[in-house]
Each structure stands twice: as structure tokens, then as C-alpha cells.
Design brief:
618 residues; mainly alpha; two-stranded antiparallel sheet; 24 helices; disordered C terminus
């Protein structure tokens, strides 16, 4: 609520003094930052020691009793739905009466993770429809909220000299966008999540379309149409999942935990339906990331957006897609996730190499960094679909580190543009001679994006590649065949980023012609002095550099806090050993439903039902 109130306060700034809108918006954005810092400082996973073995066993006993009660409720609901449907299951699978109704040990572990959400808020929003305004924070969403709370005031401060027109509206839209992003990461209800997910399109559309470059209208329209079209399919898939959940449990609910519970307790979504729903959810999330080949809106949007818009777009908005995959795609549709993981990983590798090669040949600095985001976020999604704890941890860290490093690079490019009014690499060179402090930060953040050991990028890329390499042993189905070509992306990233730094920062001194002072009576034009970083720009870049260094040297607090929620996601995706019903049929969602896993064979009479023989092949 604070950013929304701040937006209205900013709009009330007197028209006679529009320059006050920036400081007012900055102050309003600092209040959420203070609260978020307090949340991180008091978060139980960070301030309290991990429970001992006896504590964990007692906790499991309590959870097991709770699971038995939930299991009884699901059994009654399935019996009623099964009789109403005449004994036929949903999507052509076996009847509810033939399904195994007992919760496995993995589900017990996942349920224990539900209690790790803190700062919870609940309001019966639409009780007749089962919609509740559920908000909360776990370790994954906490760090993304911290990232959002850090980048927003920095982006506002960086815009003081750049935004000259309609300042009140610009800063109001920035605060509204801030509220939407915080809502996405804190939502625990599907409708609330989608509401904030779509709301973020509106402020960014106006930020690009009003304060962008010469092609701002085309960039804003393409951004809105691409992301909105994919989001419609995502909404339809989410609603259908809730509908299937209501048939399986007898109650209509949009809460994220209810969908998790029913999905892993009953396996109510048939495999072939999971494939369709997976593609529907992926349509919206992949465009938001963006994944290759639905990335074509991103370079133009980054190039035409103002500096603050590019920072928020790269630092936070792109993470909404990866966050949606982690929260909804993987845990609710585990069978489809395993089935499509190799295909998604292949697209990630293509995007990694394609984005790096295209970045290498760019002449515009912003377009170079924009295509580098396509390459870097390919690593993020690759680690996620490795389906290993290492890969998932690296994926979450990549969201954070990419937001810091790439956001900082966009700020550096924006500062260069403010001095030379150009982003053409062919016209600018030797910045280190004119602005050594700016050159230092530029090289520092380049090395961070290159994944230099000791800086933040190395930790996340190493975990992603390691998780991909070991995928297929206990979790996932990738392996070295996917990790080795992805590692080439690290080499190419060093090539194009160091090439840019060598030309622009350390190359021969070159300055664009428009930068010179024109004098009709003097044929010899002397270059205007280029100032180094001001105090405001130091305040903008120094905190990001400190965070980059901290995440590279001491990422232990973040990694430890992510251990439990990441392990929970990994266990929800791990195919357990077969558990059989009284009729000898394998329940939906177990290893028996996967012909490529654990050596199970398809029964000739069960081609339409998706059931497989219960004995492994020799």
C-alpha cells in the first residue's frame, strides 16, 4: 500500500514545482525499503538456527497427523466426485476409487515447508467464489522483494537529471509499478498473483510509451501485446487447474497451497492434460522471461525505454516469468515438467548462444545489454529445469544476481548517454581518460556479468551448470550433454562484454560530433569537458557494487535460507517409487506413468489411460 499512497502524493505535487516530484517519490520508495530490510533482519530462516534432528522428527510427527486428517477429507471428496462422474476419472484416467489415497514421504516434506511462510495476511476477497486475498513471504519471495525494494529507489534517484517533462506522472507510474511487483512476489492466491502480474504491464507501458526514445510507441505496443497475449493463455490454464482441483476436492479454491496439496495427494490432473496446461502456463511465463524464440519484443523495449525503465525491466520485471515457473509450473504439473524439461533446456541453450553471438555484433550499448539478458536468463531457466537442488538454488540466485549486475550496467550506459547523448560504440571511446570513476564501475559490473570468481555472477552460474551436469541421477533428466554447450555461453559472455569494455572504456579517445561546442567563427572545435561521477551517481552505483561484492564473497546467508524451499520444490518434482492401489494399478503422477523412467512398459490395453505395467523391465 505504501507505494500506491506515494504515487498519489507525488501526483499532488504543485505544478509550479515539478522538480519536487522526484525527491518526494524517492522518499516514498524508501519507506518500503526500510520495512523490507526489517523483514529480512527478522525473518526466522535467517535469524534462528536450523532445527535439530529431534525437533525435525517431532515436527514430522505433527505434520503426519495433519496429513492423515487431510487425506481422509480428500478420500471422502474423491468418493463423492467419483460417484457423481459414474466412476470415471478426470481426463480419461482410472476412477477415484482406484487411486492410492495415502500421502507419501515427499508430500510430508513439502507440507512442512508451508509453515515457512511468514508475514501472512488474509482477507476474504470474494468468498462466494473461494477467492481470498492471501499474502505472505518465504525465503524465495523475500529476496526478490528485497531486490525490488533496492532497485526502485535507485532507479528513481538515477532519473533526476534524465526526466525533464511530466515528472509527476513519471514518478507516480514508477511507484505504481513498484507496488505491482511487490504484490506478485507476495501473492499466495492465483487470482491475486495474476492481478498483480498483469497490473505491472500498465505502468511499464506508459513509462516506455511516454518517456522513451524515438520508437517508443512501437516498443511499448510490442511489449504490451506480446506479454498480454501470453498471459491470457496463462490465466485460462490457471483457472482450469482450479476447476480440476474443485472436482477432486469438492471445494473451489484459488489458494496456492490448496493446489499444491491436492496435486500431490491425489494426482487429479491426467498426464495428457498436464501437457496442455503446461504449454498454456509456459506461454505467458516464457514471454515474460523472455525465452528464445519469444524474445523479439525485449531488445526494442530496452533500447527505447528510459534508463529507469530499463533497470526495472531487466532487474525485476523479467523475473516475474521465472518466478511464475518456479511457483506454479513446476510444483503443480510435475509430470509435464519432466516430459518437457529436455525441450525447454534445448531452447535455453539456443537462447544462451544466440543472445551472446548477437550481443557481440551490436553497435548500440543498450541493445548489447538487452541481448545479453536473453543469454543470461537462459542460464536461469536451464538451472530451474535441471530439477536438482543445485540447479534450482542457482536459478533463484541468478534472478537476484542478474538483477543487480544488468541493472547496474543499464545505469552505467544511461550515465554515458547523459554525457555524450549517444550510445553508439563506434562514436565513443576512451571514457577512462575522461571519467575514471565511471570507468571503474563499468568494468566492475562487466566482470560481475562475466561471472568472475569473487563476484556475484560466478556463484549462480556455477550452481546452474553443476545442477545441470548432475541432473538425471536423483533428480531431473538432463546431464552433461546440456551442461557442456551451456558452458560455452560463459566464454561468449566474456568475449562480447570485454570487447565492449575494451572499445568504450579503454579504447582510443573518441567523442561524438554533437558533443563538441560549435562555433561558426572557429573552425577548430574543442571538446566540452566530460565530468566524472557526481555525488548522486556515486550514491546510485556504490550500493549495487557493494551488493555485487557481498553476494560474490559471502552468499552463504542467502543460500542457506533458500535450502528448505528449494529442496521442497525439488522433492515435489522427484518421481517417487511406485505405490500401488488394491487393484494393482499405478496412480497418476508416480513413476509408473513415465515410460522413460525406471524402465516401465506400456500395457497394450491401457494406451488411452496412460497406465503402465507395475514391474520394471529387465
Amino acid at each position: 500500500m505504501l507505494p500506491i499512497l506515494g504515487a498519489f502524493v507525488t501526483l499532488l505535487t504543485p505544478r509550479a514545482t515539478p522538480k519536487r516530484a522526484g525527491p518526494i517519490a524517492l522518499i516514498c520508495s524508501l519507506f518500503p525499503l526500510v520495512i523490507v530490510i526489517y523483514m529480512a533482519a527478522t525473518f526466522p530462516g535467517l535469524s534462528e538456527p536450523r532445527p535439530s534432528g529431534s525437533d525435525r522428527e517431532s515436527s514430522k510427527l505433527e505434520i503426519r497427523n495433519s496429513n492423515q486428517a487431510q487425506n481422509s477429507k480428500l478420500q471422502i471428496a474423491r468418493g463423492q466426485v467419483g460417484r457423481e462422474m459414474g466412476g470415471d476419472g478426470i481426463g480419461g484416467v482410472s476412477s477415484f476409487e482406484h487411486w492410492n489415497l495415502e500421502l507419501d514421504s515427499n508430500f510430508e516434506f513439502r507440507t512442512s515447508n508451508f509453515s515457512q511462510w511468514h508475514f501472512n495476511f488474509e482477507y476474504n476477497w470474494l468468498p462466494t467464489l473461494g477467492a481470498r486475498f492471501l499474502m505472505g513471504v518465504d525465503a524465495i519471495s523475500l529476496w526478490l522483494i528485497v531486490l525490488t525494494a533496492v532497485l526502485t529507489p535507485i532507479s528513481i534517484l538515477a532519473s533526476f537529471q534524465y526526466i525533464k517533462e511530466r515528472q509527476r506522472e513519471f514518478y507516480a507510474w514508477m511507484l505504481m509499478l513498484h507496488a505491482g511487483m511487490l504484490g506478485v512476489f507476495a501473492a499466495k492466491d492465483i487470482l491475486v498473483f495474476y492481478l498483480f502480474f498483469e497490473f505491472t504491464l500498465i505502468p511499464m507501458f506508459f513509462i516506455i510509451g511516454i518517456w522513451g526514445g524515438p520508437q517508443r510507441r512501437q516498443a511499448a505496443s510490442r511489449f504490451f501485446l506480446f506479454t498480454f497475449a501470453g498471459s491470457v493463455l496463462t490465466l485460462a490454464s490457471l483457472l482450469y487447474i482450479c476447476y480440476l482441483n474443485s472436482l477432486a476436492t469438492g471445494t473451489l479454491s484459488f489458494a496456492m497451497f490448496d493446489l499444491y496439496t491436492a496435486a500431490h495427494a491425489s494426482g487429479y490432473i491426467a498426464p495428457h492434460l498436464q501437457y496442455i496446461l503446461f504449454l498454456g502456463l509456459l506461454a505467458g511465463f516464457a514471454v515474460k522471461v523472455p525465452l528464445f524464440p519469444v524474445h523479439t519484443w525485449l531488445p526494442l523495449a530496452h533500447t527505447e525505454a528510459p534508463t529507469a525503465g530499463s533497470v526495472i525491466l531487466a532487474g525485476v520485471l523479467l523475473k516475474l516469468g521465472t518466478y511464475g515457473m518456479l511457483r506454479y509450473l513446476l510444483p503443480i504439473l510435475p509430470d509435464a515438467t519432466h516430459f518437457f524439461a529436455p525441450a525447454i533446456a534445448t531452447l535455453c541453450i539456443v537462447g544462451i548462444l544466440y543472445g551472446a553471438l548477437v550481443s557481440w555484433v551490436q553497435g548500440d550499448m543498450k541493445r548489447l545489454i538487452a541481448y545479453s539478458s536473453v543469454s543470461h536468463l537462459g542460464f536461469c531457466v536451464l538451472g530451474m529445469f535441471a530439477l536438482t537442488p543445485e540447479g534450482l538454488t542457482g536459478s533463484v540466485l541468478y534472478m537476484l544476481n542478474h538483477g543487480l549486475s544488468t541493472g547496474a550496467l543499464f545505469l552505467v550506459v544511461g550515465m554515458i548517454y547523459e554525457r555524450y547523448h549517444s550510445r553508439d560504440m563506434n562514436l565513443i571511446g576512451g571514457i577512462a581518460r575522461r571519467a575514471p570513476a565511471l570507468a571503474f564501475f563499468a568494468v566492475f559490473f562487466v566482470l560481475s556479468s562475466v561471472a568472475l570468481p569473487g563476484l556475484n555472477g560466478f556463484v549462480s552460474e556455477f550452481l546452474v551448470l553443476m545442477g545441470t551436469f548432475v541432473s538425471g541421477k536423483s533428480h531431473g533428466n538432463l546431464g552433461p550433454a546440456f551442461a557442456i554447450p551451456a558452458a560455452l555461453g560463459m566464454i561468449l559472455a566474456a568475449v562480447y562484454l570485454l570487447y565492449w569494455a575494451g572499445r568504450v572504456i579503454f579504447g582510443p579517445l573518441k567523442e561524438p560530433q554533437s558533443h563538441h561546442d560549435h562555433d561558426e567563427n572557429n573552425e577548430h572545435q574543442s571538446p566540452a569537458p566530460v565530468r566524472d561521477l557526481s555525488l548522486r551517481e556515486w550514491i546510485v552505483l556504490a550500493p549495487l557494487a557493494a551488493l555485487v561484492l557481498f553476494m560474490g564473497i559471502y552468499p552463504k546467508p542467502v543460500i542457506n535460507s533458500l535450502a528448505s524451499p528449494v529442496q521442497s520444490v525439488a522433492e515435489s518434482l522427484r518421481i517417487p517409487d511406485p505405490t500401488w492401489s488394491s487393484e494393482g494399478m499405478a496412480p497418476v503422477g508416480t513413476a509408473a506413468c513415465h515410460p522413460r523412467r525406471r524402465g516401465y512398459r506400456r500395457l497394450p490395453w491401457a494406451k488411452s489411460s496412460g497406465l503402465y505395467r507395475g514391474q520394471p523391465t529387465q
